Amino acid sequence: MPLELTEDRAVLHGHAEITEAEDLLAWLRRTPAPRVDVSGCGSAHLAVLQVLLALRPALDGIGNAQDWRGFLAAARPQETE
User: Fold this and answer.
1) Which domain CATH number covers 73?
2) What is the DSSP letter of 63?
């Protein structure tokens, strides 16, 4: 499954489809201080990216990525690891 949710962390794997965007959005809205790990996510539907940009959770796994994760890092440099 491309989206794994725990009490305080979401982990994206492989390709995150549009169907994961709605579940991720709901989880982010109800989770205090959420963290999202994108290190294992090779690609994501634009809806998933929009959710991450709009709700601005703490992100793990961005580093110096040169792919779509790099876009997240450029948009939010103060919150990346």
Assistant:
1) 3.30.750
2) T
Range 44-61 burial, b when 16+ CB lie within 10 A, else e? bbebbbebbeeeebebbb
Cβ–Cβ under 8 Å, residues 73 and 80: yes
Count of other CB atoms within 10 angstroms of residue 76:
16
Cα 43 from Cα 33, distance rounded (Å): 24
pLDDT of residue 35: 97
61-79 average pLDDT score? 74
Please tell me the distance from the alpha carbon of residue 10 to that of residue 18, in angstroms, as a whole number: 16
CA atoms within 13 A on the CB side of 16: 31
Instruction: Give the number of domains in the chain.
Output: 1
Range of the domain at 26: 3-79
| Least-confidence region, from 32-36, 40-44, 56-60, 72-76 | 72-76
